[in-house]
Amino acid sequence: EFLLGKSDSSPRDEYFYYTGCLLTGVRSGKWKLVLPRVANPAGTGWWGRMIEAVPEVQLFDLENDPGEAKNVAGAHPQVVEELMVRIGRARAELGDIGQTGTGARFFEKGPRRLQVPVKEEAGPAPVKPKYDRRKPLGSLRFTFESGTLEGWKVVEGKLGEPVSGAVSLPRWKHKPFNREGKFHLSTIATGKGPSDRQTGVLESPPFALRGDRASFLVSGGYHPATLYVALCDAATGEVLHREGGPEGPRMHRVYWDVTAWKGMTVRLRIVDRNTGGWGHLCFDDFSVEGELVKE
Question: What range does the domain containing 87 cover?
Fold first, then answer.
């Protein structure tokens, strides 16, 4: 009835935006969410020739901002989380540029494929990693140089390779991680190549916070509801402070003023429930004055 113009009421309450086979966003009610993407995404052919880059998840209130001028994602994390659930369902049922949906119908046997293979772009030459050699801020450190989780636990999801030895992302060899040593924590490493669609949550062992400042290296993206590194109260799980990556492949140094929680027993939590562009975190070289506490 709706498609024939006999009714003004749509049987669905959501609309998914696709550029070719690339899922770019969703609208539900007054809210429109736009997923991160690079300019002129590979594999979108003629449809993607004028697509601009979107560096981070964007949320627009179309009732009050029909021109989509103000990104309000940070002010409405619950809305973003709900719409990301719809995005996940759309990928599973309808598909995405690299994923066949359960509703796909084929006219020939075998996996779906692009008619014209996507050509790999010739990137800049690899660059040798360079650690910043900053002095630790205390006696408690997490560097993962044993190649293991060192007391950390995966508490949600299934991370294929939470401790990674990769020096860079495959397409960003000219911008290596610049981590400390040979290993770091990763939510993008699957053991079969990197994927932003992998999600999971890691937690450190609890520790007594004795210092005023903490420091660590982080790369990847940031979203206050779905993608962040947090300092948490070990007893209640409450998030005390959070930070994210620079929306890029290279780790940058973060400093926290933790004076307000000095004396508390806390833990670190790395949350990745984000499947968009830069929807991952790489973490290394945490230091603070403190001591581990037995659970």
Answer: 14-100
